[in-house]
Structure formats: C-alpha cells, structure tokens
Amino acid sequence: MSKSLLPLSDFNQSLLGFLQASPTPFHATESMASILLSAGYTELFEDQAWQLQEQAGYFVRRNDSSIVAFWLADKSQPLRLLGAHTDSPCLKVKPNASMTDKGYFQLGVEVYGGVLLAPWFDRDLSLAGRVHARIDGKIKAVMINFERAIATVPSLAIHLDREANSSRTINKQTDLPPVLAIVGESKQDLNTILMAEVRKQYESVESILDYELFFYDTQPAAVIGLENEFIASARLDNLLSCYVGLQALLSSGPGQNKVFVCTDHEEVGSVSACGAQGPFLEHTIERIWPSIEDRNRLMANSLMISVDNAHAIHPNYFEKHDENHGPIINQGPVIKVNANQRYATNSFTAAVFKQVCNDVGVKYQSFVTRTDLGCGSTIGPAIASGLGVDTIDIGVPTFGMHSIRELAGSEDAHNLTKVLSHFYEKVSLTD
C-alpha cells in the first residue's frame, strides 16, 4: 500500500495540482479522498458498522470538509498521528447575498478567519463550495466550482482617496462585496445562477435550499523565483500541510499504526463537530479501539505532530521577529514553541522531532514569536487536550500568511515529507 516519494520536481508539480483542485475545504477533502481511494484505502461511513482488518488502510469523512485516514498495522502498537486543517481565510458568501446597486450585480460577503484584506482587491475571483439542493424529492449535497474568473473587488482610484497609500482603512461590510456583472434587463439573482450550475450535474434539481460558498483567486499555483526557489499559491496555509501529511502517509512503510487527520474550521477556532476541538478524531479512534483501557495505554506511548505553516523572517520587516528565532525559507521545517500553550510543543516532543530530522539528514529551525506580540494557534493544543497525547507543532516557513497568495520554499515541503514519512515508520520514538 506504500509508494515511493516522488522526486522534488514531480512532487512540487503534484502539489500545485492539489492546490489548484482544492479551492474550498470541501474540494480539498474530496481531493484527498480520491488520492486515498487510488492508493487502495477503503472509505468508511460514520452511520455504518465498521469491519476493520490489520495491514489495511481506511478513511472516513465528516461534513464533507474533514477527513481521518489511518493505516492499521497492529492494534497492539501505539499510534503515529499527523494533523493539519483544510480551511483558509477567505471571503464567504452571505445567506441573502444578492445585491444590485448603481447598475451592478454584487454578492454580500462575510470575512472568514483572519484575512489579510488588502490583497483581495483587483484580483480575478471565482466561486466554489457546497450547495444543498432538492433533487428527485431528496436533499442532496452538490459540489460546485465555477473555475473561471466571474468576479472582482475593485479598488477605489487613488484620485478619490489621496491618502490610500498612507492611511487606507477597509470597511468589511461596504468595501468588500465583489462585482460580478452589469445588471441588464433581466435581474441577476444568486439562486438562479446556482440552479443553472447544479443542473450541469443534476437535470432534475427542483430547488436550492442552502449553500456554503467561498470566493477564491483564479491565479494558478506556481513555482517561481530566479532559481525556482519558491512556491506561490493561495491556501498554502494549510493545504500544503494537508498534501505533505497525505504523501507521508502513503510513502511510508506498513509496519506502524498511522493516523492522518485534516479538520475544518481551524481559522475560526476549531469549535465545531468537524473541527479539532470537536469529537471527530476521538470518535474515530474509539471505534478502532473500543476498550478504554487499551486506548489509554496506546495514547500513553503515542505522539501527534500538528503541521501548520510558520512565519518566515521577512527581510523588509525583520524587526517583527525575535532575533534568535527567525526561520528562513528552504532551511528546513520549523518547531513552533509558545510558553502559553498556543502551540503544544514541549521539550520531549521537540527532542523526538529533532531526532527524526537527524535520522533523515534534514535541518530544522525553531520559532518563538516576539514576547511583545500576540501568537496564533493551531489544531495542536486542541487535539493534545482532547486525546491526552504528546504533541508537537511544526510547519514550513512562509511569507504572506493569510494573504490571498502566500509564498513558501520549493524544497521545504519535500524535505518535510521525508521527515514525516520516517516518523510514521520509526519503531521507537526514543531511540
């Protein structure tokens, strides 16, 4: 069931394809499910009984936006767990979104997560997500993706805001609704547009009941830089980690119990049925090991690696970093540490990760945010507190986190996959 890790160039091209195919958490989860099925994993369903065998791979989805995959080697062995998240900061369409004013058709949006808003202006935007429709008398979920550019958020010309370059502010309610069309004789309406889009898959659609739709940048992910040093893309935080974790799962040997979890809603706190603070992962593990005694003993010897991007030191803003903790792109994965448990790393889990890096000859770095600045968080503390499992937070160094287009190193994802694949195979974590 395992396959060899792709060479660097092929790996990056495959990563770019994954990013392009995954404009929303629903599409990212569908992409991962498709890859797992192709690798011989069996899909399980939460409302059905599970018949599990050792030396076999399985996966289960929740809400179409979170996924847990696992390789069951030997139920008596501890677990090697990896985790990431499927969501990214973006503009999400409101329920009653259609707006027509001054001759233009627009959609009202909410800001999902901690979005860096300025880069969203003047981009070619498309729309994707999940629609629930009544089809053949039943409620069905339909994935949609317009793929082509259908909208933009136009900037106000500098002539009308002479202070734009020195003191620009962005009003989330009034400045962000994207423009989709000029209103003609027939009034534009989102429900009608969605009906037409769903009919491409189901001619018998009767009505649109609800939707979760997200705007995204249509510019393709790319390898860039004078020497091809960088990967530029939307949603590197945190689809890069999803891809890395999935490749580590599939390229590692079959000797150990391996769990890979990608949850939704991390960017808004992870508090949901399918988020890291919800019971999805715990429910899955409970169904594999129903005995509380067996499960607790396994967890005592298990380890979780939470994979989420880290802030690379920025050459134009180096003063925003602690001078001894400025990770550099393409210089290895970053161990993230925070005294207030915004990251779950402790000295034991850091030591294990460093040894795993040493085993495969990959350099590592450390990140601590400046003491006078706030610190973000990850799924690491949520899973550590829920499962009671030793956990470390790590990730690849990144520029422009939470922008519409982020930048990471073209070597870092591949090197991290080597590390995580070895972690999945390592017989003893303390050797």
Automatic annotation (TrEMBL):
Enzyme nomenclature, EC number: 3.4.11.-
Any single biological process term in GO: proteolysis
Keyword presence, Oxidoreductase: no
GO cellular component: cytoplasm
Assigned keywords, A-Z: Aminopeptidase, Hydrolase, Metal-binding, Metalloprotease, Protease, Zinc
GO terms, molecular function: aminopeptidase activity; metallopeptidase activity; zinc ion binding
Tagged with keyword Hydrolase: yes
Needed cofactors: Zn(2+)
Domain of life, per lineage: Bacteria
Family to which this protein belongs: Belongs to the peptidase M18 family.
Name of the protein in its database record: M18 family aminopeptidase
